[in-house]
């Protein structure tokens, strides 16, 4: 069924009024006739309004997963305004549609705007990651890695495009990538060094943990933040104590949030206690980040128990309440006792 979006689109185009996020709900999951209505209205909007609307749609998509604006983002890839093209690529960050990849590869090499090429490098890097993790056919790993490799080695390319290409290469299984990452961490450009740390985390390779730990004490907040993020992705237990200590003195909120997110990924009893304390912070942003990290930590614990159930052959139908588990007539199976002991030891790190 095609909706009549006329009133919604007229209201969204009224620059006297702020963009209503309530109205943006109506632009989710547009079918072709509805997208045609949107395109007609778009042509009447000023450049500033278009940009503001696109930014609002990207924010809405990031904060509310149930809303899907991919039809608009895919169409906006052809927009004449480079800023709109960048936002369109950002909006498609979870879309694994292989039809977009040729466009992104073209932008990466041929677009005249640096920001568009950098955004395309990020987008191509996502496809490389998906190919390496078998979320899309693995044959796309070679094409995407080769494109990013060439861009990174282009001496005439802007550093912001090259650094995004390096970040994308972080997840590549290409044997030459580790040397690139190691070299880039000593680059004179701070942004390139930051991207090298990002690539380390993206690699899923624990060899980088000793390289990352010293950067937690870097003078540059950007390096401390990326080091914390990467160590979280690598689930580096050796980083828990240093990051907890950092929370006593770290003044940069972005770094603090990165630490909290990392603690949630790494898990363990110490990380849990630190997150529970941070959840009581007077800073709303910090408290919210800590609560989200705790959710991730507990989800990881649940996944461990689900794995144990699989190993023991326990089905959902055979599951029981925790109260029943510790009842008076409970018989402690030696194997289950050993598993609980191992889990307790795991949480002590």
Overview of the structural elements:
It is a single chain. The protein is built from 20 helices and no strands. It has 349 residues and is mainly α. The chain has three domains: 1-80, no CATH class; 96-204, Leucine-rich Repeat Variant, CATH 1.25.10.10; 236-349, no CATH class. Helix 4 runs parallel beside helix 6, helix 7 (101-110) crosses helix 8 (114-132) and helix 11 (177-184) packs antiparallel against helix 12 (190-202). The radius of gyration is 24 Å and the shape is globular.
List keywords for this structure.
0% strand; 20 helices; Leucine-rich Repeat Variant; 349 residues
Briefly, what is this?
The protein is mainly α and 349 residues long.
Helix content: 55-70%
> What is the number of helical segments per DSSP (H or I, 4+ residues)?
20
Overall tally of domains: 3
| Uncertain stretches of 5 or more adjacent residues | 315-333
Order of helical and strand elements: HHHHHHHHHHHHHHHHHHHH
Q: Mean pLDDT, as a whole number?
A: 89
CA-atom Rg in angstroms: 24 Å
- What's the overall geometry? globular
Query: What structural class results from the helix and strand content?
Result: mainly alpha
Q: Characterize the largest beta sheet: strand count, sense, and whether it forms a barrel.
A: none
Would you report the number of β strands?
0
Query: What fraction strand?
Result: under 5%
First-last Cα distance: 56 Å
């Amino acid at each position: 069924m095609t909706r009549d979006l006329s009133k919604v689109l007229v209201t969204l185009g009224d620059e006297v009024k702020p963009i209503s996020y309530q109205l943006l709900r109506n632009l989710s999951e547009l079918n072709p006739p509805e997208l045609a209505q949107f395109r007609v209205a778009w042509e009447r909007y000023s450049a500033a309004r278009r940009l503001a609307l696109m930014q609002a749609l990207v924010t809405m998509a990031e904060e509310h997963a149930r809303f899907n604006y991919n039809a608009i983002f895919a169409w906006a890839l052809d927009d004449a305004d480079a800023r709109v093209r960048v936002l369109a690529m950002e909006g498609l960050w979870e879309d694994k549609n292989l039809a977009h990849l040729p466009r992104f590869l073209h932008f990466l090499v041929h677009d005249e705007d640096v920001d568009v090429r950098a955004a395309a490098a990020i987008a191509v890097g996502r496809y490389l990651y998906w190919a390496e993790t078998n979320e899309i056919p693995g044959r796309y790993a070679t094409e995407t890695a080769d494109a990013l490799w060439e861009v990174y080695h282009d001496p005439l390319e802007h550093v912001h495009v090259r650094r995004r290409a390096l970040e994308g290469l972080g997840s590549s299984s290409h044997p030459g990538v580790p040397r690139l990452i190691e070299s880039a961490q000593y680059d004179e450009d701070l942004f390139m060094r930051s991207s090298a740390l990002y690539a380390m985390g993206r690699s899923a390779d624990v060899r980088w943990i000793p390289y990352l730990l010293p950067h937690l004490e870097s003078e540059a907040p950007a390096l401390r933040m990326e080091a914390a993020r990467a160590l979280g992705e690598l689930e580096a237990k050796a980083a828990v104590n240093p990051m907890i200590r950092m929370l006593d003195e770290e003044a940069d909120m972005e770094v603090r949030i990165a630490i909290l997110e990392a603690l949630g990924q790494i898990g363990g009893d110490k990380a849990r206690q630190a997150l529970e304390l941070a959840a009581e912070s007077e800073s709303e942003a910090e408290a919210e980040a800590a609560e989200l990290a705790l959710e991730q930590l507990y989800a990881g614990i649940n996944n461990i128990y689900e794995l144990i159930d699989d190993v023991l052959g326990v089905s959902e139908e055979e599951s029981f309440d925790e109260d029943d588990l510790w009842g008076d007539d409970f018989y402690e199976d030696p194997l289950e006792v050993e598993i609980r002991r191992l889990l307790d030891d795991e949480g002590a790190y």
